[in-house]
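Issue 218. Parser rejects a valid record. Input:
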Amino acid sequence: AATDGHAEGWSTPSQGDETESLVIPISRRGRVWANIELDYLNRQAGMVAALWRRPLVKVVVAFAFMGFLAYAFFLRRVLSHLDPATVIPPRVKTTLDLMAEGVLLLDRDERVVLANEAMAERCGVGVEQLVGSNASQIDWQIPGSTERALDLPWVRALGGVNTPDPVALALSTDGEQRIFTVKGAPVKDDSGRVRGAIATFNEITQLERKSQELEEAMLLLEKSRDEIRLQNDELRVLAQCDPLTGVSNRRSFMAFAEKVFDESVRSGSPLSCFMVDIDHFKRVNDDHGHQMGDEVIQRVAQALCDAMPDRDAVCRYGGEEFCVLTREMGSGEAVALAEGIRRTIGSTGFAKVPVTASFGVSSLAERPASLHALIERADEALYHSKEKGRNRVTLRADIDEASES
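Output the parser choked on:
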C-alpha cells in the first residue's frame, strides 16, 4: 500500500545530497502491511515550496500582489499629474504654439509648467529649457534701462490678483533689448484655490522703436517750429521796429495809434501825444561822429520807453525825432510826463556828450479830427519849443490861448 501520489511527491536524493534514511514498518495481523519511509532533503531547497503549500502564505501573497497593482495604478496617476507634458492636451499645446503672443503657464512656485514656441523664441532658448525654470529668475528689466524689474504680473496673479492693465517688461537677448506688455491671471481649481498662474507676453519692440523715432521726429519738428517762430519774431521786429533803437517804426506805430485813437474817441477816455526832438543833433554828429550820434538816439529812445508802460506807444518818427502816445492821460499829466523825461535827458551823465530835447504836447481834449491831426498839433507845439530856445515842453492848447489873447 502506498500514499496516493507517492511517485510524484517522492524523489530519492541525488548522490552526495542523500542522508540516512529511516524505514518504519507497519504490521497488521502479525504481517508487514506497509512501510513509512523518512528521508531528509536540503532545507533551503524545500523551504519555499513548503511555505507556498501553506494556505495563509498564498493568501498573503495574493493580497500583496493586489496591493502592488493598486499602488502602481495610483503612482501612475500621481506621476501623470506631476508631468507638465500632460497638464494640457496636445491639441491645446499646438494651438498655443500658433499664437503670436508668448505664453507661460506657472505653478505655485513660479516654475514654468508650459511655454509656447513664441515665448521660447523671444527668450532665445528652447521650450525644454524654459519648462521647469523659475520665471522670476529670468533677467527681466525695466524698458530702456538695465535695472532689474520687480513688478512681475504673475507674482501678483499667484496672490490671486488679476492684472488687466499690462506691465511693460524688457528682456535682453542677443545684445538686443526686447520689450513686452505682460498680463497675468491666476489659475484656480474648482474650490477657488490658486493653483498657478498664466502670463501672456505681447512684444512691442518694433512699436516702441517707431514711437521713439516719432518722438525724436516730433522733437526735431518742435525745434524747427521754435526756430521758425524765432525767425518770424525777428522778421516781425524788422518789419515793425526801428533797427537802431528797437522801438516801433512809423508804419507799425500808426497802425497801433489808429486803434488807440478810435477806442479813446468812442469811450471818451483821455488821450495825449507828444513829439520829441533831440536839440542840435547835427552838431553832435559833426563834433563827435555818427557812432556817438547813434548812441545818443538809443539813449533817448530808452529814456522814453522807461517812462512809458507800453513800449508800442513809442515811435522813432524819423531821424532824431520821436512820437509818443499816452493813453488814459490828459494834457496836464502828459506835460508833466514830458517834463520829467526832458529833465532826465538833460541831466549830467545821461550821455557821454551834453544832450537836451524839446517837446510838443497835444491831447484829445483839443478835439482833433483824426490821429494825424493829433500828431500834427503835437508837432506844431514841438516847433514852438524849438523856436523859443529849445530844451522845453510846449502844450499846443497854450499856443492857441496865447494867440487868442
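Fixed in the parser; the record now loads. The chain has a mean pLDDT of 84.
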